[in-house]
């Protein structure tokens, strides 16, 4: 009987009472274990039925296939429980990209390591954040140690520091933020930094093949994309030092150099700019040097390939993407700084509710001061798990295997009468094209069409780029378990698709 004036208690919805609702308690963890087992079992069954790295559906067909599972509109009012999640896992594994298929060779997107993926589940379960010590004490310490091992690999000394970021784009942005404020001498105040009513014109030098994230960073930082001074490359796609010297020497008085950005591993060619020479130029002109080693940074793990990055230790900052050549689940990049004090002027913030001074002085400090983010995942956990499980040599061996595959692919292309190699590979990409047999056929149209044909069949996933506006195909080889036989079959599939396109014309 309800008391007069008191509403009867409203029963809690059943899900709120489930003892295993929350991941990070013993009952919840057990449920996570059961669910992960079932989800991965469903996914494995779907994977076994696959015929290639991509589903053989058009984008429109894929969208229709998802309709019955996940409405393309308002969210479901009531839940469907674990059955609904299992059905989602089945469809996801059937329809997403399968990067472990040796015929997946399009992007700088490797198959993730099992050990890293499993550790990542634990990061989600505990949901720690590394911005403050008390939001993720062990996660904070693990990231510090992972960063330390990376700065050590880069050849930096004890003053170095770093931070994990969501990707090379973010790492490059933060590097240029640091460089901008170092050069213009002010922070968090656009006017003081000279960004409005500019007398000074900030400029960033990088090769014409630098990643577009450099220009984007300039735009985001208020410098404008026009701040980029693209420097021409040599025949091996590396920044020409003489051209850089000329650009620096010939700059107008109003131009203020913010940074020289070297690329260690250009996206298409894998070429590595001449780091020691660029470091010397940077030092001579008193300009900061940032090395975008988002792709090539993986060479740090390998004794055999480390010499390719000789001189990197002279850079002020380095971007390295662990979700490229350390086989981590995205998103995991690192920005490293030779002098850890570089972070303070731009991100070294003290906030009363997060990291007050006295807590910091007592050692209760998180990583807020190194990052542009506030809440930040324990991404270092999967990296630490990888380093512990495989060691430096284990990770290095993976890149070495892909490096060798790229050489095999290049030799095979060069020996194939219907294919044309664009250049010898520098890392693990191979740029080439199909040569149409029919006189008068447009090679660009045929190469574009043959890639789409492979995509639509789902049997091979290769990349595409251009050389002076003319279409080229690209293999980005990041599967260390692929064999030379797999590469031969992939190239044979490309040639066959080219013939099919020509026959259909
Ligand atoms: C040289 C280089 N830098 C930066 C990036 C951007 O990295 P992310 O995709 O992790 O933002 C890429 C991506 O391919 C790259 O190749």
From TrEMBL:
Any GO MF annotation of the entry: aromatic-L-amino-acid decarboxylase activity
GO cellular component, one term: cytoplasm
Origin: domain of life: Bacteria
Listed cofactors: pyridoxal 5'-phosphate
GO BP annotation list: carboxylic acid metabolic process
List of residues that carry N6-(pyridoxal phosphate)lysine: 324
Protein name per UniProt: L-2,4-diaminobutyrate decarboxylase
Species for this entry: Streptomyces marincola
């Amino acid at each position: 009987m309800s008391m007069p004036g008191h509403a009867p208690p409203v029963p809690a919805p059943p899900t709120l009472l489930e003892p295993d609702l929350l991941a990070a308690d013993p009952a919840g963890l057990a449920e996570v274990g059961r669910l992960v087992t079932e989800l991965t079992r469903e996914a494995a069954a779907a994977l076994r039925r696959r015929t290639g790295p991509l589903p053989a559906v058009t984008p429109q067909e894929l969208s229709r296939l998802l309709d019955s599972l996940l409405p393309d509109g308002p969210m479901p009012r009531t839940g469907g429980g674990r059955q609904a999640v299992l059905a989602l896992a089945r469809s996801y594994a059937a329809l997403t990209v399968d990067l472990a298929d040796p015929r997946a060779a399009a992007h700088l997107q490797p198959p993730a390591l099992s050990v890293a993926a499993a550790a990542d589940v634990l990061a989600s379960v505990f949901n720690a954040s590394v911005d403050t010590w008390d939001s993720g004490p062990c996660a904070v310490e693990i990231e510090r140690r992972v960063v330390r091992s990376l700065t050590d690999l880069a050849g930096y000394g004890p003053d170095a520091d770093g931070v994990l970021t969501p990707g090379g784009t973010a790492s490059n942005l933060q590097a240029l933020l640091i460089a901008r404020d170092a050069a213009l001498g002010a922070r968090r105040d656009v006017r003081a930094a000279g960004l409005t009513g500019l007398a000074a014109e900030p400029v960033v030098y990088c090769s014409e093949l630098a990643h577009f994230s450099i220009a984007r960073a300039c735009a985001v930082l208020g410098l404008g994309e026009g701040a980029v001074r693209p420097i021409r490359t040599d025949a091996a796609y590396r920044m020409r030092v003489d051209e850089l010297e000329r650009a620096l020497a010939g700059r107008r008085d109003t131009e203020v150099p913010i940074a020289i950005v070297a690329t260690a591993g250009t996206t298409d060619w894998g070429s590595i700019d001449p780091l020691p020479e660029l470091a010397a130029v940077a030092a001579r002109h008193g300009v900061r040097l940032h090395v975008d080693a988002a792709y090539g940074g993986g060479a740090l793990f390998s004794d055999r390939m480390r010499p390719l990055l000789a001189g990197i230790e002279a850079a002020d900052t380095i971007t390295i993407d662990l979700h490229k050549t350390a086989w981590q689940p995205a998103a995991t990049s690192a920005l490293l700084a030779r002098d850890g004090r570089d972070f303070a002027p731009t991100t070294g913030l003290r906030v009363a509710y997060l990291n007050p001074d006295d807590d910091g002085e007592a050692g209760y400090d998180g990583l807020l001061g190194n990052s542009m983010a506030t809440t930040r995942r324990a991404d270092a956990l999967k990296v630490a798990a990888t380093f512990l499980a495989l060691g430096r040599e284990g990770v290095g061996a993976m890149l070495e295997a892909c490096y060798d595959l790229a050489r095999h692919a290049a030799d095979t292309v060069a020996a194939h009468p219907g294919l044309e190699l664009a250049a010898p590979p520098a890392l693990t990409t191979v740029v080439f094209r199909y040569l149409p047999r029919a006189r008068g056929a447009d090679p660009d149209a045929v190469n574009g069409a043959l890639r789409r044909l492979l995509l639509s069949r789902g049997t091979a996933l290769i990349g595409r780029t251009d050389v002076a506006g003319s279409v080229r195909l690209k293999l980005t080889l990041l599967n260390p378990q692929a064999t030379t036989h797999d590469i031969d079959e992939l190239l044979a599939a490309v040639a066959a698709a080219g013939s099919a396109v020509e026959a259909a014309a």
